[in-house]
Amino acid sequence: MVGNWRRVTGKPAVEQRAGGGSWLWLALGLLVAIAAIAWAILSNQPSERQAAPATQAPPAAREAAPRLAAPEPLPPTAPAAETASVPQPAVPPAPVEAAKPAATPEPEPEVAVRRSGPAPATQDPKVPAVPTIVVERRPLADRPPDQPTPASPPEADPPAGQSGFVRDAKTDCLVWLPSWRRGRQFAIEWQGGCAGGRADGEGLAISRVLPVDHMPTRLAGHFRDGVFQGAAAYSREVVKLERDDFLIALPAGGLIGAQFWLHRRFAGDLSVPLCIGADDSVLAVLPGHASRTDNEAIQRFMRRAGEQAHAVCPLVRRVETTVVPQDYGRVNEVNRIEFRPMVASAQVYLDDKGAWQITRYRNDEAAQKEREERAARRKEAERRGKEAAVLRANPDVRGVKLGMQTDQARAALGGELAVWKPAWRPEQEQDPYLRRLVEVVLNDGARLTLRFVSSLSGGELVSLGYEQRFTTGPPADEAIARLTGKYGLPDEVLQYSRDAPWTGSWTLRSKAEGVIGAFMKAHVRFDRNSREVELLGITIVDVNWNDADERAIYQRKREEALRQHEQGKSDRMKF
Length: 575
Prior knowledge:
Layout: H1 2-9, H2 13-44, H3 48-56, H4 59-64, E1 81-85, E2 112-115, E3 133-136, E4 165-167, E5 174-176, E6 186-195, E7 198-209, E8 217-224, E9 227-230, E10 238-240, E11 245-250, E12 259-265, E13 280-285, H5 295-312, E14 318-324, E15 329-333, E16 336-340, E17 344-350, E18 356-362, H6 364-391, E19 396-397, E20 400-401, H7 406-413, E21 417-422, E22 437-442, E23 447-452, E24 461-469, H8 476-487, E25 492-495, E26 502-508, E27 518-526, E28 533-542, H9 543-567
Parallel strand pairs: 13-14
Antiparallel strand pairs: 1-2, 1-3, 4-5, 6-7, 7-8, 8-9, 10-11, 11-12, 12-13, 14-17, 15-16, 17-18, 19-20, 21-22, 22-23, 23-24, 24-28, 25-26, 26-27, 27-28
């Protein structure tokens, strides 16, 4: 840097720094002198605030009160209050005695608020006294219960059906608002008609947040029973429930004692619309004389509920239907209300052909009754079967019956036998634990599956399965009549209708002594249109005898293993 200065000016850098510094100090001194002169001039002139009272007060007041006194502080135990002054014309203050200090003069704003304290200075008697409004500040918890509040919150224990309604103090009319628009910090204003103490008809409800709300919530449209319906009004009864839920009455459809209610929640505009077309739910109240366990009658009742909802609102095409008795109640669950006791529930929908269909049907009481009746029928069938099994002969199929040996079963088939296919190898013939299985095919295509017990139990037939298929079979009723003619009436018909196959069951006496544990079942499957038999199946099994043979095999194998284990032991030690 020194070299650069030398090249530009040709003088040493030290000399250039000294010359520049003297000019800088001279400029700073001038600025300080100017600032001192300005401060002296301004400090000698009085301010407008100090001069104004001197020009307005008389000479006696100026001599008596050369200095203003500060106001006395508030007592520490006095409750705080606010005094609001009404604007008044400017009047010169009255002269104050010399012995008393003058109060601090204050400018008169448009509305002034000051703390309560000592009494203000004496006012000119010519000027009329201005009334003051004192607003006492207290916590809401300290207010008397009969003192009106700024807003009308819902009552702690409201009357039936009044939960969620807010009262307008001017019109004394109730308007429903959701839970997040209720409370002491909200105020409601109703402009419209009132029927039965609730907003009714065309009107406007304004909900404000206290103390000032520049963007209040406005509900303009139709109201019924204090509930905002929106732009489209409907004449149905509206019942308020808990959790901001509602029930809208539907026509009964000519059913005496029945009730249908459309279950709704409020929409985004705080209205409770009649028609939505989504998430529709119907509460159906059964008549007092209706049966709770008649599934067909209850499903017809559900379809009627869907029809009534669709008649009132064409957008309704799929509804969740809940059927309850006359003495039903409500239970608050998580984020929903359930109606108890529930008789049945299902989803009812309108198909493309205009018919109401039912899916996801549930009726716990009817299902329990059906299970009990089925168990009772089965128990009765077992009782009758045991009694009949003692007298019932051992049934046969194409001449083969339980208890036959392999050669006896083959001889019984005679010339009808087409294929005899054992399911064991010749070297297994002497196996005492072998349970022989034979597959048989007859000349007409019928098939037999024969299973024999082991030689430990005699090697007799213990299970028989028969299957016959038809190209053009006999009528179903004729086939069933021939079966019952040969084997007798079944102890139990498990399933039979026009479209379902027929299955009959017979109880037989087991070969195991003193035990009833064998049965025969016949199965008839037929075409739904022609009612001709397509498949005939017969099964005869002695369950207890089969189980006894398995236990005998297990016991014999266990004894053999123990014997081999003992034989592998030595009586002396050699090494």
